[in-house]
Amino acid sequence: MIILGIETSCDETSASVVEDGIKVHSNIVASQQALHTRFGGVVPEIACRAHTDTIITVIDKAVTEANIKIKDIDAISVANTPGLIGALLIGLTAAKTLSWILKVPLITINHLHAHIYASKIEYDDIDYPAISLVVSGGHTSLFLTQSETRHTPVGGTIDDAAGEAFDKVGKILGLGYPAGPEIDTISQKGNEKAILFPRSYLKKDSLDFSFSGVKTAVLYHCLGQDSRDSGENPGLKDRELADLAASFQEAVVDVLVNKTIFAATRFSVKSIILGGGVACNSRLRQKLTDAAKQRDIPLYYPSKKLCMDNAAMVAGLAYHKYGEKEVAGLEVEAIP
Ligand code: KG4
Ligand code: ZN
């Protein structure tokens, strides 16, 4: 079964052709990063316009690269929640139009569930139940996953998302947007024990997250230096910058790893699944790998291209939803 997937929930316009949930024939991602960098974050209005400008080209490329004809498509899938409402609507409208013209089923997908599914594209031996951690620019969520399509939320952030904390701290440190990848690279030359930033665990046994405290702690730390000011280079020497980045990253990673392992133990799961843009982080991958190995729980995370927003994860998951006869009508809405 050949499914065309569409993803426009934030600042990437993506379309992908996936066969039987795992054979990725194409996965085109048009990033808008260059348009948002100078604002230090995603500007919804700019994101919507860029999606409108590129969606047709991206879909066209996905079909061409997959070497199929548009009439070979058996179903259309699209992420319709959560995300920026205007951005979601552009993907959803394109998907509805194609579904109507081609007379094929429309399958709507939860973007966070798609991030969890991304691992399944590369590993077919994932055992359920699993604890899934989705860490991205907009979300930090823990799910108890019973199957590809069944996910119960068990924890989430009460303020900033993990990726958002990376991006905001990057701004404080005078780095570009998005800052996650740069903090990851810079940290490799730093000492993660140089500064003890706070780790917020909230109430005892809580599976929720809070990253606003560590972000503020970095800001206060920088304000004590010679020059600073959010958004400008605070005049840190390379060594200081590396230590700060590594210490901040360590604080975030520690909380993510400890809460995920705690949840995995509490629910006696058979696997841990990691997904979302922050799942590209090398320190998070390493520490979660070590912690999972210690407890003998298999850990799965996808390659970097499938961690970031992409439509292959949408089209892949849609295959399973279609198998469960979960098809949407043309009246289906986008939910931010
Ligand atoms: O999943 P994603 O592509 O988009 C959303 O759904 O938000 O995630 C983007 C986020 C950004 O905040 C970015 O800074 C972060 O993922 N990110 C990283 C790394 N690569 C991307 N954060 C930390 N370390 C990385 N290597
Ligand atoms: Zn995402």
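^ zinc ion complex. DSSP finds eleven helices and ten strands in the chain. The chain has a mean pLDDT of 95.
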